[in-house]
Amino acid sequence: MELSRNEVLVLKYLSRRSDQFIADSDVEIENLDERAVSSAISYLVKKGLVESVTIELNEYSLGEEGAAYLNGQLPEEAALNILKQKGNASLASFASSFKENELRVALTQLAKFGVKPEKGFVNVHNTNLEKIAQEIHARRKVLESVKAGQSPEEGEVLNQLLARKNVLIRKTRKIRRVRILPEGLNASSKTEERIETLNSEILLSGEWKTKGFREYDLNPAKLLEYAFPNLHPLSFMIERVRKIFLQMGFTEMSGTYLESALWNMDALFIPQNHPARDMQDTFYVKTDQALQFTEVDKKYQKLFSNVHEKGIKGYTGWGGRWSKEESERPLLRTHTTASTIKYLAEHPTSPQAIFSVDKAFRHESMDWKHLAELHQIEGAVLSKDVSLGSLKWIIKEFYSRLGLKNIRFIPSYYPYTEPSMDIVAEINGREVELGGSGIFRQEVTLPLGINDRVMAWGMGLERFAMLYYNLKDIREIYRNDLGWLSTYKIPLNFKN
Amino acid sequence: MVTIRLARKSLTDRYGADSVDMIKKYADIIGYSVEDGEDFSVELNPDRLDLASFPTLISSIRDFYDRKESKDKITFSNEKIITLENDAVKIRPYLVTFTAKGNKIGNNLEILIQYQEKLHETIGKGRTRSSIGIHDLDNVTPPFSFKCEKTDFVFETYDGFKGTIGEILAEHPKGKEYSSLINAFGTAPLITDSSNRVLSMPPIINGAASKLVESTRNFFIDVEGLDLRVVSGTAYLMANVFSAMGYEIVFYDEATDWFPEFTKYNDRVVSLNQESVKTYTDIEPKNVPAYLLKMGYKIRSLGGKQFDVLVPGFRVDVMGEADLIEDIAKAAGYDSVKEKPLQLGTLGRGDPLRELSSDIKSICAYMGFQETMNFFVTSPNLYNKKRNESGLHIINPKSEESSIVRSSLYPSILWTFHLNKRRPTPQKVFEIGSVLVKGKQNLRLCLAEYGSKASFNECRKTLDALCSRTLGELPFIKATGNSDIIHGRGGKIEIGEKEIGIMGEIYPETLIEFDLNLPVTIIEIDLEKFIKTVTQGN
Question: Do B13 and B138 lie in a common domain?
């Protein structure tokens, strides 16, 4: 039988006192605290080397009232003194010597001794005051012994005090007493102390040559309750996606969460009456520091207004009236395409390959598959070679580097791309929509002075994280449960 | 997304046993999704409103798979059917009408009404941009007039409410819902027949005189609104559903007299260069005409590589060449488009701030801190008068918990500790994320510790370790009045003369506010200032 060092020490200690039961707390072993001793004893009991009995022990302490009585007088002591001095007392004069709540206690206690107020007087008659005095004295003795930390004598007096509120408090503690069994004595005689933790003393003294090492349980259950700190699961994915884009020759964009409708919507030819602009789809922001509209922005307002109302180069536009005010509403960007289009406005010449993995905001109620705040992966290419075929190629290349093969494309619709395609793949036997893509409409590119075509694709990072980390509820990702964060499994070789 | 639904049995009864398979097959061409159960439903992208009814969807499928020759389903007549008066046109500036004649409508009435409602919601934007009235033509007599009547004029609505215009607007549910659309001051627009019976009070409610029943076989339809393109688009969409159900459609030339910019059904022309098709899709020019016909277009060849494509009036989504190219690619099938490798000729470059945060993330994790991620849009409960510097509120929050934009990171971290109170301590976490201060977005780093040993000295050690690894110099801490930090146990972090953040032990009152029972220390650094120090320092 393998015994730990502590178990050996406790067993040796008990073997020297094999004739008696000893409480855990009485086992004194150098450098071993009470908890360690108790734990070792429990194991020894489980292993059948030690027997134990548990007894209940009452512990007493003074309640608030009890402590006050001991400092001053018990109410019945005070009452007794009055009666001793005066013989009889009117209830009124009697009452004046007490605080309200103590008067009640004093009268109750006197009543128990047979002294009851009659016709407004507290009468002694022929009561034996001396006997009452003795009884009260016994009560004081009990309180004093509790204060001194001694166990009071069990009996009528003690019970009387316990029955009163806040005078005396009783706690019952279970105490285990143990005694070594013959099996224990046997085991103890066979064991020799073995090396537990290798330390410099053992190392330098050469003790390790003779003593031997205690053997450990090599496969203990659940040692890893709280593992080592690490990056957030989304960070792993973000870094992986960034690496793929950078290796493919893409430049990373940066953009701001607070954006105008001009760049989030109008620049992308989203009509001003489009449902996506409604209050139930987009977070609008109240700000005293309204967005600064630069001269450049104002120039684009004119350009976008023209495209929306009248169209461009054979395209009809939306017609109707385009509102400048509508374009100036501040909002939390609903997609990172707002950054893409801003970047392209500043870099309109081919070739450009750009990407970002950043936040976007949706006016959604959170549930198992929806978040109101999420990361979007977005890639875009401006090149004279952009076509539906090259878009399919680059998306397949990108997803295969993420571990996703057998991508399919299905027709879709976005106001700013034509043609548009959604990207789907089979994952765990289910067809999963991975994202959207398309070639930007000319109504989007021409006003920015872009003469070649732009293709772009995007997907939500958190939806992908659900597949990546095998999550049933997307909200897990943002719960910040340190248990999960320090133990989640990184799928190093993710594949569909 | 637009969804249409019909009991599966009703679908196969009406359109044949093969209709289910056909709809599923066509889904790969158009890109809608299908749910097949006791109810059969189709969820369409919002651009193809013309497919958002089963009769039109089936008809489009027949065109795609069986089309032999393009047939005109819609004609124009020079008869006079309605007169317009100025006062009514002032309220609803555009009106387009047509008639549809054929068999008894029967149980298709429900489909018709559902489609009308769908158009009201979508293209009509809740009847503001366009609205539709459908009438039994046989119970009323043309010519009709579109005119205004005073609000004491009495008529009966299709659902039996009889009263003055004023009463209908004030008391009838439809009146209450839509009266704001006509801004009637004493008058309201009506469509009446030759004996002054009311067909409708657009865009609010129809009259009893022209009420539809299942035995109705001849229809008069009015569409009116604020924008001619939307109004005519709506009318052609509505005509398309009648046409798909086998009705003869007649529009009236007078629309062109009133509104010269009105485009007749087939008169919209988009020119298409076959070269463009080739650049976008690699589809061979010889296949283009067939694909266009399958998708319901008509073609006038201009010789060479130029086409004039005639776009049916109900294709409100087609605005130019790219829309036709997409339809050609759809007809060919996206799967048939060959993948084409691309030589980008660009060099990858990471955003400098992102690159830096990447490095800092690793450093923090190596120092033994777990990364957390909290939301940018957060709860005002994490802030209070002394802590809120931003004042940036969401106008239309979905919930109280997500209604303000955070102006610092550490309140969310305190909340994270609160949520993990029962986990073993010490807990050391960090977060890199954006905050918004005075309208400006700012990237921050927060490192924090929760546990009995969290103290200024430990916190300072962490800060010094971070600074010596990244800046090669140690910061100066200046005592400060941040009310969340115990005085003399933390303050502003200065590098050189520049203030880059705060650090220290959290004030007990704040700990109690977050229901924490062990000390917390925090470091919060402005990473944008930090990166400047890093680059200038070297």
Answer: no
Residue A456 lies in a domain: yes
Kindly state whether A213 is in contact with chain B, defined as any CB-CB distance less than 8 angstroms: no
Count the Cβ atoms, other than its own, within 10 Å of residue A413.
22
The per-residue pLDDT for range B436-456, each reduced to its tens digit, is 988 889 999 999 999 999 999
For A438, which residue in chain B has the nearest alpha carbon?
Answer: B326
Contacts for B93 with CB less than 8 Å, ≥ 6 apart: B225, B226
Task: List, in sequence order, every residue forming a beta bridge with A331; answer none if it has no partner.
Answer: A259, A284
Q: Is A457 helix (H, G, I), strand (E, B) or coil?
A: strand
- pLDDT confidence tier of residue A306, bands split at 50, 70 and 90: very high
Residue B347 included in any domain? no
Q: Name beta bridge partners: B77.
A: B252
Distances (CA, A) of B257 to A55, B33, B96, B148: 108, 43, 11, 21
Do B119 and B239 sit in the same domain of this protein? yes
Q: Do A254 and A314 fall into the same domain?
A: yes
Q: How many domains does chain B have?
A: 4
In B, minimum Cα distance to A375 occurs at B375
CATH number of the domain where residue B368 is located: 3.30.930.10
Of B45, B67, B89, the residue at which a domain comes to its end is B67
Q: Searching chain A, which residue's CA lies closest to the CA of residue B350?
A: A252
Check whether residue B469 and residue B378 sit in a common domain: yes
User: Is residue B203 reached through a cis peptide bond, with omega within 30 degrees of 0 on the bond before it?
Assistant: yes
Q: Report how far Cα B493 is from the mean position of its chain's Cα atoms.
A: 46
Residue A348 shares a structural domain with residue A469: yes
Whole-angstrom Cα distance, residue A429 to residue B87?
63
3-state secondary structure of A342: helix
Chain A and chain B share a number of CB contacts under 8 A equal to: 250
- Say yes or no: B278 and B251 in one domain: no
Q: Give CA–CA dist B455/A210, Å, rounded.
A: 45
Q: A316 and A290 share a domain?
A: yes
Picking from B28, B43, B67, the residue at the C-terminal end of a domain is B67
Question: CB contact, 8 Å: A317 with chain B?
Answer: yes
The CB density around residue B278, as the number of other CB atoms within 10 Å, is: 16
Cβ within 8 Å, pair B229-A319 = yes
Tokens of A420: 């548009």
Q: Which residues face A270 on adjacent strands?
A: none
A388: chain B residues, CB-CB within 8 Å? 280-282, 329, 334, 337
Calculate how close chain B gets to A422, using CA atoms only, in Å: 9
Q: How far is A255 from chain B (nearest CA, A)?
A: 10
Alpha helix positions (H), A347-421: 388-401
Beta strands across the sheet bearing B94-101: B74-77, B248-252, B94-101, B218-225, B130-136
A239, A353, A388: residue with CB nearest B337: A388
Express each pLDDT in A367-381 by its tens digit: 998 999 999 999 999
Contacts of A439 in chain B (CB under 8 A): 280, 322
Mean pLDDT score, B229-249: 94
Check B396 against A363: CB less than 8 A apart.
yes
Torsion of CA A328, A329, A334, A337, to 10 degrees: 0
How much is the pLDDT for A209?
87
A442 and B320 in contact (C-beta within 8 Å)? yes
Task: Return d(Cα B447, Cα B440) in angstroms, integer.
Answer: 22
Cβ within 8 Å, pair B350-A242: yes
Q: What is the pLDDT of residues B120-169, one digit of tens each?
A: 999 999 999 999 999 999 999 989 999 999 989 999 999 999 999 999 99
Domain contains A386: yes
Helix (H) / strand (E) element for B300: namely strand B298-301
Give the whole-angstrom CA distance, residue B371 versus residue B431.
Answer: 6
Q: Give the Cβ contact number of residue A305 at 10 Å.
A: 18
Q: Which domain holds residue B431?
A: 352-537
**Which stretch, A89-98, A232-241, A284-293, has highest mean pLDDT?**
A232-241
Residues A496 and B386: their CA atoms lie apart, in Å, by 50
